[in-house]
Amino acid sequence: MDETKGGARMDETSPDAIEWVERLFLAGQDPHEERRRAPRRPVAVPAAIALADGATLYCAIRDVTAAGARLAVPKEAKLPEAFDLALLPKGLTRRVSLKWRRGQAAGVAFL
Predict the structure, then answer these.
(1) Calpha distance 45→64 (Å, rounded)
(2) pLDDT per residue over 74-103, tens digit each?
(3) Burial class (CB in 10 A: 0-12, 13-18, 19+), 20
(4) How many CB atoms sit inside 10 A of residue 77's CB?
(5) Nearest to 46, CA basis, from 81, 76, 22, 80
């Protein structure tokens, strides 16, 4: 899915989309001048979940808002109530809490 950014198209896997997620991930704010409550942006950004036992679970961020994100995770994966979510390959990390889980999808809120 494409979004417009300054009149140009922004593909969900483009460098612009990844930069947008990085800014939102770090600042907890929409880097665009969007005024709607927690606008959802479709993206396809690789990420990793740090589990308490030291294991890493690889996933993808499928959409993101100023408040949280929807992740694609393996269906059989057990997710804790709170965990560190890292953007790959840069390793930018945010603490998140699990809000819901349906099959391979999981919703998290940024803490």
Answers:
(1) 10
(2) 999 999 999 999 999 888 999 999 999 999
(3) buried
(4) 15
(5) 22
Ordered structural domains, the chain, with CATH: 2-110 (2.40.10.220)
Q: How many CA atoms are closer than 13 Å to the CA of 82, on its beta-carbon side?
A: 5
Tens of pLDDT along 41-74?
889 999 999 998 999 999 999 999 888 999 999 9
